[in-house]
Each structure stands twice: as structure tokens, then as C-alpha cells.
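Sharing a chain and its predicted structure for anyone who wants a worked example. Both blocks are below, sequence first, C-alpha cells second.
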Amino acid sequence: MDTGKNQKRNRLIALSFASVLLLLIYGPLAAWFVAADRFLFDTFASGLPNKPLDKAIIISIDPSRSRHETILEEYGQLLAVLTNSQARRIILTQPPEVQSDKHLPGWVAALSGGVPVYVPTMHRFADLASGNGFMNVKPDDDGILRRSDLWLLNGGVMSPSLALAVAFDNENLASSARMSSADDAIYFSNYVALPRVSVDEILGGDFASTRLNGATIFVDHEPALVGAAAVLPSGQFVTHSELTAALLADVETDRTIIVPSWVTAIEWLAPILLAIVAVLFMPDRGRRNIAVMTIASVVGLLLVEMLFLYVLRVRLDIGRPVLIFVGVGLLSMWLVGDAKKATLDAFKRGSDFLSAGRLEPAFAEFRRCSPSDMLATVMYKLSIAFEQQAKPERAEAVLEWMKRTHGTLTAKKEQKQKQAGMPQRLGRYVIERRIGRGAMGAVYLAKDPRINRAVAVKAIPIEKEFEDEELKEARLRFFREAESAGRLTHPNIITVFDAGEDKGLAYIAMEYVPGVALKEFTDPKKLLAPKRALDLAASTAEALDYAHNQGVIHRDIKPANLLYNPKEGSLKISDFGVARMTDNNNTKTGIVLGTPMYMSPEQLGAEKLTGHSDLFSLGVTLYELLIGEVPFKAGNIAALMTKITTEDPAPIANRRAGIAPSIDAVLAKALAKRPDDRFSCGAEMAIALRNCARYS
């Protein structure tokens, strides 16, 4: 089977597997797999930062005093002491039972002594106390208490939980938006321990009454740990008082853990969406990519759950979705491993058929293989073999199949490009080979795939040359210069089509001109005829005149930037991409933007340039084309700059046959030190050059 069919098969298998997992994990086997949700919640909830109640104490009555009447009597004594100490509120989480036939006149006074007292709903004190609420401890089937109901239907009336009943008397919390969005339950995380005091310390006067003033007091006869009523997600064993204290602290600090209705919707959608993502993107990737994708996704999901819990205080269960995603990931890795073995077997069989000259079976086997550079190589050999057997239509079929599965047959070429440091693409342009290199970058022959046109692409490593603010300025300058060059339309100027940045390289796509740079004709043994050199210089001067009238100067006229096609006799100026707009107020010239031996005196002095600078550089270029050497030479840059700015060039009319004396006059004017002493424009220089050519 070919790659496309193989991927479809893998996706279908993954889809079926994910569907079965969804049905099982959220269906008949939900009770088994819900442990994944609970495990993640317990793990994160254990470390959740919580705040205890402000100024709260738990007073414990020793339950070893077996007499029920004694414990009940101590409760009454405590209420009197706490009332006199002006406690803020008293919460009896598990008061001792009172017989139904026992009269309560004494308790009426104790429970209505001015300090609010709260008791469980089903106790006899409920009708006498300031408030009451239910205590309903229902752990999950694994013994962990994670949820606390806020309301309970009691005799046809909805009763609040004890913690909620206490909170209702707090005017600041009665209308809490968070509580109203909690639906019907809030969730436990961990318990920040409150100080415990024995009843003997309170009744014996050993405990300062000032510490009771304004405090929230919990009274019970359940010792810590021994009298524990439940286990929290943090693993802490807590009593009824501690449970109520933990819930009340969350409510009063507005840090309750809730599950709004929209979270429930997310929990239903998450496994479906994750299953779809896994089925669409995993089966057609390699094992390593699948593993990376699975690990990254699981880590991301865990971070999302932590974000919801730690920041939003919302419980979001994604343990089961994680299991589904991991399951599809493992299946995809197995399928890829199976497909890889099938690919290797098919490749071996195809290679054997190709060696035996059985081309059709070889083609069938190779089509079962996954795309690779090795497959591209043998398929290329297969197409040649079909050609040798006089079956051009089959050879074409091989190449067409390769185009569909591998793109163009450029595997070897791309490898060579990587080894040579050449980019394979710049923007939309496909690089074929390097055709030039300069100080500012390389020039490549490339193809524009949109219109199948050959272009020359000049690439400049802008990110290596500049940093930070300089990089921003260089990037802005580059695109501004490319825009100015793109406005030039002249038969002797290479047209700029496009500019961009890719892989840290700024590039300019321009017209590809077959030919050679005039640098090839500066060798004394390969000089052009004087008349030809003058004609080419005149064409260059006319093109420069056009550019200068458009407000653009070249700044780097030299033989290497003049492309000549000997067959057609045409000339094109290249590299206008490094020009700048002359009307830019910040235009200054640095030596790095040109070649020193061709620079004008004002360019070396970093003065503001005009088109006269290009005419000076053209004069130097013509001088070199005529006799094979530049007019100014020196052993170092400082000496060279001195000569350019102070010395006149030596005459050349007597150094080579065919050079008219008038040429020296033209060169002297072009190479004048002061811009105003040179030709007024490129057109004037072109006329002078063509007049000289008549006598050469």
C-alpha cells in the first residue's frame, strides 16, 4: 500500500481505538478510570496554598469521661464562659445527644446568651441556636472526602451546610458571586491546622480570656487524629470541627474550590477534542515526533489543570482525557513502528526486483515505501532503467509519482546545498546554485515557482552583521533601498522584483542576466577593445543618468557590478539594492558600502553624496577596463585614501594602442577631486565617451 493509504489506515485504526476508549472510560468502566481524575486533583490540591480562619480555636472535651451527663455539663459550662468572654461565634459541630423527653430550660439561656451559636440541623439544639446546618460527610468510594454539598433537602425544605449557615450571617459574604457560581457543592483541598485547647484549660482559668474575645470557637469531643471523621485529598485525617473550619475558611477568604457549569462542559468536550487532535496529527508522524507531541501535550494539560486550580480555584478534571491522549499516542507509535518495518521490507523487495531487471514489480514495491532521500535515489535509477528499456511513458510515471510524494527530485542537491552552507529556499524562491559572492553576501540562481521564472537572488546575512538597534535600522534601510531600486526601469539596469527576509538573511530577487561581470575583462591579458569599453561605459553613464534623475545613486559602481553579455553586446548595472534615496536627510556614506579603490573623495570622507560620486567611480572603472589597472594604488587603505583625494591619475593614451588622446581629457574630468569639476550629469559624460569611441 502507498503512503497515503497507509496513513488513512493508521488514522482509521486510531479513530476506532479512541472511540472505544471514550465509550469505556466514560461509560461502563468510568468508575475504574475516574481514579485518574482523582489522582491529579489530590496531587495538586495537596500543595494548594490556603489560609486559616482569622482568630479561631478548637476546644476539645475529653471523650474518655464516659458519663454522658458529664460531657453535656461541660458543654453548658463552656457556653457560659465563652459568652462572658465575648467570643465572636460558637460552633458545636458534634454536640452530645439530648434525650427527647429531657427539658431544656437551662440550654435556652445558654444558647441565647448574646453570642451566636451554631449547631447541626438534626440536633435538639437546632431550634434554640442562632443558626443550624447539616453535617453530611460522604467520602468517595476510595475513602477520600473531596466534596461538600452546600444544600440538603430536609423534610421538603432546603437546608444549608453548617459552614454555609455560619457564612450567611456574615453580610459581606452572603451575596458572594463565587458562592452563587458554585452550583451545589464546593471542594476540599487541605486543612491549615487551628490551635486546640482542652476544656480543662478554659474552665480552670489557665487560658487568657482575651484570646477568646472576638474569636471563632469550635467545640467538640473528638480528639485530633483519633476522632477523625474523614481523610482529605491532602491525606490529612480531620474531625468534624476541622472539616467545618476548613470549609468556613475557604468561604470567608473567598477561596472556595468550585466547579461551574461551563467547566463541566469543558470536561465533556476535552476528551473528544483531544481524541480528534491525536487521530489527525499523530498517525502520520515518526515515533520521536509522536513521543514529543504526546509528552508536550500531557505537560500542557497538567499545567492547565494547575492553572485552573491554583489561580481560578476551579476544579477541572482532565485525568481521563490525558489517558485517552496517551493511549492514542502509544497506539500511533506502534502503528508507525509496524509501518516502518513494512517500508523496509518493501524497499528490500523493490531493490531486489530492480537488480533483477524486473522494473514493474520494483515500482509497485517502492510505492509502498515512505518518502525518503534513499527512496528518491532508487526511484531516479528506476526511471533511467525504464528509459533504457524504451519505456518512456513508465519513466514519466515514476517521475510523476515522485513529484506527488517527494516534490521535485532535489534530495542530493539539497544535501550539497546544506554542506556548502547554501539555503534551500529564500521566501518563495527555490535556490539552485550560487553564481557569485561579494563582501556583502552571495548571489544565487533561483526559480520563482509561481511563474517558473529564473531569478537572481542576492542574500545578505543581516542578522550576523548587525545587532539590536543597529539591526532594526539596517533592516529598515535595506527595504527602503530595495524599494528605491525597484522603481528603476531601464534597459541597462537589472530589474528588482522582490525583497524580503528569511532564515536571518535579507534578500533581493532580481532579473537574472546571463553573462559575465566586466571584472573578467580587467586582466591585462583579456582587455576589451578600447571602442567596446567606451561604448559600455557610455551605456553605463546613460543608465546612471536615469537613476540619478529618479533620486537614486548606486554608490558602488565597479567592474564587478556591471554585467556584460558578449553574445548580445548588452550591459546591465547590478546591485542597486545597496543604493539609498538621495533625498533622505540621514543619507551618509560609510566605506563598508563600497570598494575603496573605486570610491570618490567625498565618499571616502563620508560626505553627503550626489550622482557625481557614481561618475567618479565609472571613471575609475573605465580607466581599469582600458589598461588593466586602477588609477590609484597603494599598500594600505590610508595611503590609498590620500592618493584618491590628492593625486591626479596618470595619462593612459600613450600606454595602449587605439586609445585616443581625448580619452585622457574625459578621464581627467570624470576623476576630478571636486564634484562640481566633473561632468554635470551622466548624459553629458555619455556624449563625451561616444565621441571618443569614434576615434578609437
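Comments welcome. Residues 309 and 315 are 6 Å apart (CA to CA).
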